[in-house]
Structures are given as C-alpha cells and as structure tokens.
Amino acid sequence: MFDTFPVLRRVGLAAATIGVAGLLFAGCTTTSPKSTATATDKRESMNSAANATLSKLYEASPQSKELVARAKGVLVFPDVLSGSFIVGAEHGNGVLRVGGSNAGYYSTTAGSIGFQAGAQSKAMVLLFMTDDSLNKFRNSSGWTVGADATVAVVNIGANGRIDTNTAQQPVVGFVMNNGGLMAGVSLAGTKISKLNW
Questions:
Q1: What is the pLDDT of residues 26-74, one digit of tens each?
Q2: What's the chain's Rg over C-alpha atoms?
Q3: Domain ranges in the chain?
Q4: Please, are residues 108 and 92 in contact by the beta-carbon 8 Å criterion?
Q5: N vs C: which end of the chain shows fewer Cβ within 10 Å?
Q6: Cα(16)–Cα(160) distance, integer angstroms
Q7: What is the rounded distance in angstroms from the CA atom of residue 70 to the CA atom of residue 128?
Q8: Where are the alpha helices (DSSP H) in the chain?
Q9: Is the pTM of this model over 0.85?
C-alpha cells in the first residue's frame, strides 16, 4: 500500500519554504513608471504607521519620549513580519527621521534557523544617539546590526524606568509586539538597506 505521509510532509515543507521566500523577497521589486505614481501613497502610509508606532512606544514607556527627543536620528519600522518553519525570515519597511523631518525610507531583513513554526509581527524603533552613529548609518550602502554597529535593546526595569546604562549607548533599540515592549530580544544580524521611494 502506498504511504502518503512522506509525500505530504515534503509538500508541506516545500509550501512553507516558498512562503518564507515570499516574505524575504516581498520588498524586492523593480520600479516601473506605474509604481512611481504610488510612491507618495507609500510614503504617506509609512509616515502614518510610524507616528502610530511612536505613540504606542510612548504609552508603553513614557520615558522613551525623552530619549527619542534627544536622538540625532530615529528609524521606525512599524511592521516587521516574521515567519519561520526550520528557516525563518523577517522583512519590513521603515522611515528615518532627522530633526523631526523624514530623511529617507529603508527596508530591514533578517534570517534565522530554528524549529519554530508560525508567523508574527513586531515593530522596531532604532535611536541614533550620536552624530557619529547617525552619519555612519546614513553613509553606509548596507548596514548590519552587530557588524556595523551594536544596538543596545532597551530593558525596562520593574519600576518602569529605562536602564540608564542602555540609554547611554550610541544606538538604542526598542522592539514591540501586540503585548507591548519585548525583553531579551537580539537584533544581531538584522540588515537595513535604503529604499528608492
């Protein structure tokens, strides 16, 4: 009798791999004359989403507002989608703000290997606290956390305060999901590239 289980398992694995590849390459498109007409819409949508993300951050950690105000540059990724089935992938788009004005649009990607299955969404906010860290980021052709700079992910203490040692680092990061700020998250290996929007 023909055993269908190995075949079904291979089909499921292939479908999951295609889904992950789709996540990875969703942002890799070429610009045609038709798509340039929607660039303004993309920017407006991204700006609204970034504002909403910052509002959620301020609610989750009121002290973060002061840190954002002191930052030389603020990079907001409102919606980073991740999916994994043995091989994981993340992708999202964001906006860099310098002096309160939009200074460019960026994409982020990351990969991982693990035995988790599922998908989730998170938001990331990176704060460039020094002119030097911001300039290195803006002048790079591709920027990777861990290789080009270390990002100190903020820890919130039991008293709701931001760890002062973390807040003094050149690049500070916040990661949030629907449940609020995420603790113990590493952004190492996250790649950020400029978008031509």
A1: 444 444 444 454 888 889 999 999 999 999 999 988 999 999 999 999 9
A2: 19
A3: 39-194
A4: yes
A5: N
A6: 39
A7: 9
A8: 5-25, 33-36, 39-60, 64-70, 131-138, 164-167
A9: no
